[in-house]
Amino acid sequence: MTGPTPGARPEPDAQEPVGFGPPPAPFGPDQGPRPRPRSRSAGAVAAAVAAVVAALLLIGGGAYGLTVRAGVGVPGPPAAGPSGSPSVDQGDGKGPGGTPAAYDPNAGIRPGEARVWLRDNQAEVAGSGTSQYGPWRVGATVVAAISNGLTAYAVADGQEKWKLPLQTPLCGVPPAPSATGVLVVAVKETASDTSRCTHLQQIDLTTGKAGWKVPVPRENDHDTSVEFELAISGDTVAVARPAVMSGFSVTDGRKLFGTSKTNGCYPSAFAGGPRLIGIRHCPDPKDTRGSGQAMVEELDPATGNARWSHKYDPDWTVGRVLSMDPLVIAAHHKDKKTWNIKAFAADGTVRSQTNPGFGVSGRCNGFGNASGFQECYAAAADADTLYLGAGKPGTSLGIDDTNQVVAVDLNTGKERWRSAEQPKGRTMWPLAVEGGRVVVYVSPGSAGEAGAVVSLAAADGAAQPVLQSPAAAAGAQGVFYPHGLRTAWADGRLFLLNGRVYSPEPRKASRAILSFGK
Description:
Elements: H1 42-56, E1 57-60, E2 63-66, E3 116-120, E4 130-131, E5 133-138, E6 141-146, E7 149-154, E8 160-165, E9 170-172, E10 182-188, E11 197-204, E12 209-215, E13 229-233, E14 236-241, E15 244-249, E16 255-259, E17 266-271, E18 276-282, E19 293-299, E20 306-311, E21 317-324, E22 327-333, E23 338-344, E24 350-354, H2 362-365, E25 379-381, E26 385-390, E27 404-409, E28 415-418, E29 428-434, E30 437-442, E31 452-457, E32 463-468, H3 474-477, E33 486-490, E34 493-497, E35 500-501, E36 511-517
Antiparallel strand pairs: 1-2, 3-36, 4-35, 5-6, 6-7, 7-8, 9-10, 10-11, 11-12, 13-14, 14-15, 15-16, 17-18, 18-19, 19-20, 21-22, 22-23, 23-24, 25-26, 26-27, 27-28, 29-30, 30-31, 31-32, 33-34, 34-36
């Protein structure tokens, strides 16, 4: 019996990343799955882990490379995942199906490798697909959202824990919930395709229960939009739409502030987290055709008042907020075909700035991506250093071949070190800085390597292995495309979320979320 197979879909543009694609080509001769031992002594486990380490990394002189694992066959075609119905597999961590022909991302798993769970989208969505948001780790669950609802999965095995349908579609989602696990999203007035974005809806991600729902009052006669850009900082959810901003209490939905213009500069976006950063556009009254200036400012979340502001030179566009604490921002100049990184001190003064000699994807410098100012998932920082997934500069400002990590000194703007380049097809995504080391996701490669997590010493980039997923998982991981991927790293576990999903079909699987870890 042949299981369902993914079908190819048209390649999207960078604004609408998909979460689907054709199965990868075979990696090598099929040797079949290896049997798992029923029990192992501590010494045997240590030896097995050492073997995985040796196969995973070659470390020397602060540089490293992931070796290609050869001789591992491709698993059978993938099957559709669970729908939440009691009659189907609810997620035991052994794959989405229950028959021998079903695709198992853990087939042939070796001692020391991290077990994978995988879930496909089971919701009916528009024919062109829908954006997917998250993943948000809250306690023992991880939550994802699509236009018509939210779903929570068990962290350990991917079992569906709760599902919350929405009465009207989403039209704005913040990058992260509050520190207490409360999310506030924007929803449309009706389910019509032409409906405007009009309301805010509170959702408790711990319980999956909807809370208050309030309309967003218009700030002026022109205040109407089909989409809001949201950010949460403290107890404030900030709402940006064209030339207008306002703030509301996460706790009770009470309006805190609202304004449409400050000193000739119009609000356009927010970034949230440990502080609230506003991004404004300042047109030149003497040159109405010019692009004007971009301005960033730190705002008081309770009042919306600026604590400090900084204007960029004319024709520079603020692209991404790479780190909130310390504050690091990427901007680009389209005509000059260059980009820069600025680090800011607590009082808003420029700590350092540099025009990098390396390239990053458009998701990390904003080129070709007009929204989602916290959408760079390949950046991490500690107090003095920024770590970026990077590569050789391309012919444009946005490249996708980010096959190494570059460390940038935030006090001087100079490079501190670069990791070795990964083999073709593998990208590196810094996730976090923990215990003086940089945690990095290394994506599957074109030669059949499965995804892995490594850590680099913050001082010199010396590498250590953290997690290695089974070879059988490479095919599923390969359809989590870099230009649409969203990630989360929490408590030793990695979550990969496709930025776009499609309705389930009999012989096509739309991969939604995958996780492996402790």
